[in-house]
Amino acid sequence: MNGLNWEGSFAVAKLDDSPVFGFDCGRSEQNEFFHQRAWTDQQDSLSTTYLFYVHGMVAAYATIVMDSLPLSRSERGSIPYRSVSSLKLAQLGVNRSFQGVGIGQAVVSAVNNLAREVGDRVACRYVTLDAQPDLVAWYEGQGFVRDRLRQQERIDDAVRHQRDPALIPVSMRFDLRPI
């Protein structure tokens, strides 16, 4: 669907039942979560999943949860607290048929906007996520930066448990505060 004109037909809805099969983003972890866990986790108030439609078809999904982000002294700047509130983009999948046309960017933008709305009510400074190593550059292009403290904690844990640190997800954050 490269070259698809989708911007006028973009719609978002909260997941309201078990997802129908057929969605495939090309990543087994995200596909399995979507088909096997998204609905039950939402019913248990563990996460909330939003569906992003183009021309009535599920083009993408995003699952969000609340988070607390630990920051090192150098990452805090003027923030006096070690941990700050955030909204976490826990899962993101773009259907293969819609990849490469900007849907992922639109989903990230929608999640950032939702976090700003939440932040107006309960204080939310960041959007966080755990990027697969091959997607770090893409998220950096969306304005995310690496979380040094949280990532170092993960690397230390991986080494302790004899896992390859190069294969672990990369903790990242997006600052919602206007510059």
Topology:
Layout: E1 10-14, H1 28-43, E2 48-54, E3 57-70, H2 73-76, E4 83-94, H3 103-122, E5 126-131, H4 136-141, E6 145-146, H5 148-160, E7 170-175
Parallel strand pairs: 4-5
Antiparallel strand pairs: 1-2, 2-3, 3-4, 5-7, 6-7
Describe the structure.
It is a single chain. The protein is α+β, with helices and mostly antiparallel strands and about 180 residues long. It has a single domain (about 10-175), classed as Gcn5-related N-acetyltransferase (GNAT) (Aminopeptidase). The protein is built from five helices and seven strands. The chain has a seven-stranded mixed beta sheet, sandwiched between helices. The longest helix is centred in the middle third of the chain and has 20 residues, at about 105-120. The chain is globular, with a radius of gyration of 17 Å. The model has no long low-confidence stretch (mean pLDDT about 90).
CATH topology title: Aminopeptidase
Can you say what the CATH homologous superfamily is? Answer: Gcn5-related N-acetyltransferase (GNAT)
Q: N-to-C SSE series?
A: EHEEHEHEHEHE
Question: Alpha-carbon distance between the termini?
Answer: 36 Å
Architecture per CATH nomenclature, i.e. the level-2 architecture: 3-Layer(aba) Sandwich
**What do the pLDDT scores average to?**
91
Q: How large is the share of residues in beta strands?
A: 25-35%
